[in-house]
Amino acid sequence: MKDRPFRRRRGGILLHVTSLPGSNLGIDAYRFVDFLAEAGITVWQILPLGPTHEDLSPYQCLSVHAGNPKLISLQFLAEEPWFGVCDIDLSDCGVALWQGYRRFTLYASQAIRAEFAAFCREQAFWLEDYVLFQALRETQDNAPWFEWPQKLRGHVFKELGAVGQELETLMDRNRFEQFIFFRQWSRLKNYANGHGVLIFGDMPIFVAHDSADVWARPEYFTVDRGGRLTAMAGVPPDYFSATGQCWGNPLYQWDRLEDDGFSWWLERVRTQLKLCDIIRIDHFRGLESYWEIPAGSKTAVKGRWVKAPGEALFRALEDSYGSLPLVAEDLGVITPAVDALRDQFHLPGMKVLQFAFEGGPDNPYLPENHLENCVVYTGTHDNDTILGWFNSLSEDKRHHVYECLGFPTEPMPWALIECAFQSVAKHAVVPMQDLLELGSEGRMNLPGMIENNNWRWHFNWPQVKPDLAARIRYLVSHYGRL
Prior knowledge:
Helix content: 25-40%
Order of helices and strands: EHEHHHHHHEHEEHHEEEHEHEEHHHEHH
Shape: globular
Number of strands: 12
Strand content: 5-15%
Distance between the termini: 19 Å
Number of helices: 17
């Protein structure tokens, strides 16, 4: 690709912001950037940054544009000049943000107020829908919007007219929270870029049903006038599931989106380009064709493949933004048509080493079958750690793995980590859990499981061995990724 991120070989680490010791944009995030720079790592891959539901999944957010206020560093907030000398409850994010908002309205300088006003103007194309949605949601005890009174379902800003002082205050506080999030994120991203580190973000293909996006623009999604799903996203039965998977997301009304010049997608990508240097498109195959499941289905068996206008969408994106730093998540059962769409726009795909050791010599994940225009991973946020995966294998399969790797002298996980950095792939990314040599206790997500510890893992600095940065830097340098 011609994009700056893919001009040369790079090494990366996958770690979501919530997995930092402080789980926010505070001092630990800056310390982590320092660690990356010391290790010679130039790509920090994260998960989506949006506000999550109670299950904490960053792939089912309340907005495709907004940042998660829970990622705001309360310590940095308390250090703002307008906050003044005041106790802040660092244990309660909600209370602390209310306190910050009140002090901002009372004591902020004219300069910072002007910065806030400029932010609200520039982001109005999504911000006003979002803050009204969130304000209404709070008045409805955070119930999903499609369970609200009928008069509040759909985009009702004009119908509401004067929204009342309570809603006005809630809306303004939500504007403030987004202002603070984007301000803190911009500072962190600038710090990372200044240390030679690119931010590799993640964009889920589908949108949560309970989101500001579907509430504000229901005509773009498969929902009826009451907000109920008429069709939903998922994947068909396969080797991993005899009944497939029902994700519960609405699908897109692609004809309407295309009639509007894909403006909704253009705005979405505009936000992501502000947040990140590289963007992974999750479930890329859904932009070529997607599995449509009738609403109310308990399984994904009775679905059908429906063609998506992926080529037209990418042409519209290129017309607006030029060649984009996108990566296609092309894992799973991929058809020649999906490969063709990816290759037509020269998008790097993904190779996951944990998938390399089943099947025959034509397995595309085997190191010898890698392509230069791809990103290689030891595993992703949906996989077990290297040690957890390797230890679950039979002795024969472990032997087979080492045989495929040429019987390296390093034990796991470092044998597979070195294999990733050695790959011809332009980018090699390793989850932090693997670098910390963690077992299954470090797994970030177990797909299809809700009642567990998904999305809650984080590391602590004592887990980082004193020589870890130097060990990583040696591999990065040795394999031409420095």
